[in-house]
Fold each of these.
Amino acid sequence: MAGRTVLVTGGTAGIGRATALGLATMGARLAIIGRDRGRTEGAAREIRAAGGGQVDVFVADLSSQSQVRRLAGEVLQSLSRIDVLVNNVGGYWNTRHVTADGLERTFALNHLAPFLLTSLLLDRLTQSAPARVVTVSSNAQAMGHIDFDDLQGERSYSGARAYNQSKLANVLFTYELARRLQATSVTSNALHPGVVSTSFGAEDPGRVQRLFAPFMRPFMKAPAQGAATSVHLASAPGLEQVTGGYFANGKPKRSSKCSYDEAAAARLWQVSADLVGLTAPATTS
Ligand SMILES: NC(=O)c1ccc[n+]([C@@H]2O[C@H](COP(=O)([O-])OP(=O)(O)OC[C@H]3O[C@@H](n4cnc5c(N)ncnc54)[C@H](OP(=O)(O)O)[C@@H]3O)[C@@H](O)[C@H]2O)c1
């Protein structure tokens, strides 16, 4: 990875920090995004110490579209190339929360943020090609359903339903992006990291998570193991031209039947573009 620049969202903790650490030790120049400056600087110091290379720090609350736009501007100013974008940030909330933009938080952070950030950085990725977009989904996508009549759980909200939908949205986005980028050398793949012992869902956990997580922790993957598929997709030489795939345990895997619905993917893309205020779909082909 020497000479390559990798941008990781959510690089302060969990799978994202382990992904950044893994890629830094392979020689990549890292740029990490966190929402708290102190935590992000702290993670960057740790990653620098492990990898020995440059680690840039960007701070933004990705649930806010104005912050994503400001962040993208700063990234484009600082990074002359982006070889890999790892869309890693994601969360689970048991109860319904609303972002600064008035959007349901799971949909906004897990799906709209990577959609908008990737769109705003796409020209830089294309200029840096061969380049890769890696999006962290989850096997929860298999239980997901895109409810176009109630995308943001206004009529009825369940944390699990919102999360599953957002993770299916990650896969639909990944596949649609791959189709739109067919004429370029930018690939787009999604993955399931495994069940990983992190702070995932800790802000607003459900009763089941509160009760069972402590007992399940010893059986979960460590963050470095959970990051392995992200690291593989970001770096494996054999994957340079592999696009439009879903991976788990470092291997390709079929995602849910719904995730291959191209009409649903195109519709979701359009709805998302409207919700983030992108007038035209982001495509370079
Ligand atoms: N853990 C699992 O078992 C599991 C399973 C399947 C899929 N996944 C997926 O893996 C990804 C990473 O999850 P994780 O387990 O590593 O979660 P985590 O431990 O909660 O880490 C989440 C990361 O995202 C950052 N973040 C959260 N909200 C943010 C916001 N509004 N703006 C900017 N950054 C924000 C956090 O920063 P702070 O330091 O500020 O909190 C942290 O760096 C997610 O997409 C999740 O859906 C996880």
Note: The domain at 5-215+230-276 is CATH 3.40.50.720 (Rossmann fold).
Amino acid sequence: MVSHDAPVSSVPAPALRAFGERFRGRLVGPGDEGYDEARTIWNGAIDRRPGLVARCSAASDVENAVRFAREHDLRMSVRSGGHGVGGLALCDDGLVVDLSGLKGIRVDEENGLAEVEAGVTLGELDRATQAFGLAVPAGIVTHTGVAGLTLGGGIGWLTRKHGLSVDNLVGADVVTADGQLVAASADDHPDLFWGLRGGGGNFGVVTSFRFRAHPIGPAVLAGPMLFPLERGPEVMQTYRGWAAEAPEELTTVLNVRRAPAAPWIPEPLHGVPMWMVVCCWCGPVEAGDAVVQPIRALGPILDLCEPKPWLEHQAMFDGAVTPGWHYYWKSVELDELTEPAVAAIVDHVARITSPRSYAVAFQLGGAMSRIGEMDTAYAGRSPAFDVNINGVWLPEEAETSPVPAVLEYIPYRKNDATALRDEDFHRHPAAADDEEGVGRVALPHQVLAVLEDLVLGATRDQGEVLLGHPVEVLRLGEQLLNGLH
Ligand SMILES: Cc1cc2nc3c(=O)[nH]c(=O)nc-3n(C[C@H](O)[C@H](O)[C@H](O)COP(=O)(O)OP(=O)(O)OC[C@H]3O[C@@H](n4cnc5c(N)ncnc54)[C@H](O)[C@@H]3O)c2cc1C
């Protein structure tokens, strides 16, 4: 079997020149101006030195780059928004196919559709769709990339009402492993379309997405209610029943951390450990007050849940995850936030000294849970919460990185009876990482099942490794395209 792991330096000079002549975007190699910028992604802890970054200007550049990588058996990675936490967007010595410059967005107001190129960020998408009073369900930080987020599922404030990002995907243009651009949808290449919806970047390089968009805003009733950390267990007693019964227009995110020095938090609270219930009610604003009342009645120390523009709410967490800081994230999905689970989170957060690290629990359920487990490649539609334990430190704090603390916490969670299967720990691309900083992501179990059926005869371990060799992985897309699934 061919390794697809050759460095760009192995390509003969005439072949490299010929590629440069065909490629309409910019090729940036070591020593070229802008090389360091081209190899910088959101997580400052990732320091990889690609052999060549192909900054694509159009889908034809993506086709050319994939063919070039295949011809020369190159190690290859795909970068869009650059927010993959484990840094799989970059590969040492190989070819980075960089789609971050593909910024086209076209909103079809009449049909409630948005056509979005792969380099678009969530903030850019929100601004474009809100001009028509619409929104595409996506994530909760504006600088995240639409592409990686969508291919991994896409959880956010609208998930319970309108489903995951993949549940709103109606089509995509994809470059498969043979460098062919194809349109995938429920009608065209349905197997490939199935794989794109939750299978991560394993089935091809997506150049453009077509989404359903929904009427949202311009105002939503949203924002955090803050409680001192030690009140977490008491707040959760009310929260559990309330959240379980809440209309799907309401989504909550529990954010547990030392209060950040954000402009929306009064200075005396900065650094104080807090249990925050962050709400977003996307129904008629006037109806939301009654819905959030049970949590408000508990008497938060700070109540910032109020009517505000959807765009403002979407930017709320931006400052807490600044590009360039160092990050190590792990996640686990839970059926319920039991008393032991809450106690564990309180215990963990009470010991965090960092003003930047945090735990966050996304409330799930609603529309996403009504889609069949096998209808898309996304695995795990039934859990009620996605809990993330996020270690954050500054570049100059490398000596005191919280990675060991994050790892200590995760095995604890693993032993909790409410935790799901072990493999779910790394299911989401956001959780991609291991101690050495080498990307290792276990694929969704449906995708693994497909893998095991295919000629690759991949095992679960190989499934993890495969993500580091996208050209080979992209062949899965070909297989699906040929209807083998
Ligand atoms: C600050 C922050 C906030 C986040 N918030 C949320 C959230 O609210 N909800 C949520 O669900 N997730 C969230 N995530 C996780 C996020 O969805 C993933 O990290 C996602 O991979 C980021 O996509 P990207 O395009 O920015 O990243 P990239 O690093 O560019 O891509 C990540 C991986 O996706 C694949 N990929 C990227 N583009 C393509 C493409 N065009 N075709 C094929 N494969 C591709 C590649 O394998 C790549 O390595 C967040 C992450 C961060 C860092």
Note: The pocket of flavin-adenine dinucleotide is lined by residues 41-42, 77-85, 88-89, 99, 118, 139-141, 144-145, 147-149, 151-156, 200-201, 205-206, 321, 429-430 (CB under 6 Å).
